[in-house]
Design goal:
By secondary structure, the chain is of the alpha/beta class. Helix content is 33%, strand content 17%.
């Protein structure tokens, strides 16, 4: 689904419409980086193994420092990566001069010596003349005139064994957004304050049955004027279904690795697992399972995927792009690591359950895994150093369940990690 709100690429002065839009309406607002100024090593290790299960995590120095590119860094995203990865060299690029200037203020405030900025379109990123271990491009590709060209440009500077995290809008969950985008286009609504005030007043009258109603009450995309403008008045955006996104990744010379949060796309997680269709969906090819779950849920508003270069086999533990295979005989030596947003709830439980495990980052309320007393003990024993075998002889199936529910990531290196293993 594509809204009618993108008829041109340039304004009457020859400036790209997206560059002009974000210079006037910078979004998202700069993050409060004080809250993430002292990241815990275990959190950094979990983030590392989400992307590279088989690559040892360690603090780096000198030429071995991790190289991160934040492509379309907005007002603070590159600064967030720099402050949470002090052992990495971070580069942020964006077309918005306003976003770059707000980043410079964050550099000065937080003394971010490891952050470098460039006002540069993604399509021209090869001009940096360097490669990156991790490229982060979230909420940007869907605003480009040609997202495939942009993604191919990013793929061309991916270092061997590198990974690319990308987020694009999802079609079905944003159906209401595109209805109101076209409504605004027909009325000629702009981004001046009078038009925004009138739009806000009008949106208050939308009925609860409208497809946009849930987003109006739950999404930060409607929290202030700049957010409202970004969601409903952006001059160019598009969305992707699961098959369309997987095709985009393949056409760009990349290989899909996993969803950043995979449980919403899996037939054994959440309410779908309790239906007769769960087993039927599980018999489909994996990509078809993802597509079916997007249709079943209907409310996914964005897809965030981790991809690797298609030519990178990922077979060696040094590069480690390959995702865990639970049939691997070495699985007992893997180390589960709890994700920071995973919690165990022990109140208001159904009969027979000792706990409810959930990831607070999920927006889907059905993604809860109920556990018995023995499983709850195993979950609490997961500390990043114990192996699957250390948790007990029957732990592997439980660990796989936790992994698929986004409650843990896995260090599949096997042997003891380097000094970065300490938490």
């Amino acid at each position: 689904m594509t809204s009618a709100l993108r008829p041109t690429n340039e304004d009457d002065r020859g400036q790209d419409v997206i560059e002009q839009f974000y210079d006037r309406r910078p979004y998202p607002p700069p993050d409060d980086l004080d809250a993430v100024a002292t990241p815990k090593p275990q959190q950094r290790r979990a983030a590392h193994h989400l992307v590279w299960p088989g690559r040892p995590y360690a603090d780096r120095s000198g030429d071995s420092r991790l190289r991160i590119l934040v492509a379309g860094c907005g007002t603070s995203q590159a600064a967030r990566h720099a402050i949470t990865h002090p052992d990495a060299d971070v580069v942020g690029i964006d077309v918005s001069s306003t976003g770059i200037e707000q980043h410079r203020q964050l550099i000065e405030r937080h003394r971010l010596a490891n952050l470098e900025l460039h006002r540069l379109p993604i399509e021209e990123v090869a001009g940096l003349d360097r490669q990156f271990d991790h490229i982060v491009c979230t909420g940007v590709l869907h605003h480009l005139a040609d997202p495939l060209i942009g993604l191919r440009s990013l793929q061309s500077i991916l270092a061997p064994g590198g990974a690319l995290t990308l987020m694009v809008y999802a079609t079905y969950g944003r159906a209401g957004v595109y209805l109101i985008q076209d409504y605004c286009l027909r009325l000629g609504i702009g981004t001046d304050q009078v038009d925004l005030d009138e739009l806000v007043a009008t949106l208050r009258e939308i009925g609860s049955g409208h497809p946009i109603s849930r987003l109006l009450h739950q999404s930060r995309d409607f929290a202030d004027d700049d957010a409202l403008a970004d969601a409903l008045l952006n001059p160019r955006d598009r969305s992707y279904t699961v098959p369309q996104l997987l095709e985009l990744i393949t056409d760009a010379g990349l290989r899909f690795g996993r969803w950043q949060r995979q449980a919403p796309y899996l037939p054994d997680c959440g309410s779908i697992s309790e239906t007769p269709h769960s087993a039927r969906i599980a018999k489909l090819p994996v990509a078809e399972q993802y597509a079916a779950l997007e249709l079943f849920r209907g409310t996914i508003t964005r897809h965030t995927a981790i991809a690797y270069a298609a030519t990178d086999s990922g077979a060696t533990t040094d590069s480690g792009p390959q995702q865990p295979d639970f049939a691997d005989p070495a699985a007992g030596s893997w180390r589960p690591i709890r994700v920071p947003t995973a919690i165990a709830v022990t109140e208001r439980l159904p009969p027979g359950a000792a706990g409810a495990l959930l990831n607070r980052a999920h927006t889907e309320t059905d993604l809860v895994s109920f556990v018995n007393a023995q499983e709850l003990i195993m979950f609490r024993r997961i500390d990043g150093s114990r192996t699957v075998a250390d948790l007990g002889p029957q732990a592997l199936g439980f660990v796989e369940r936790l992994f698929r529910h986004d409650l843990i990531v896995l260090d599949t290196c096997g042997a003891s990690e380097q000094k970065g293993d300490r938490s």
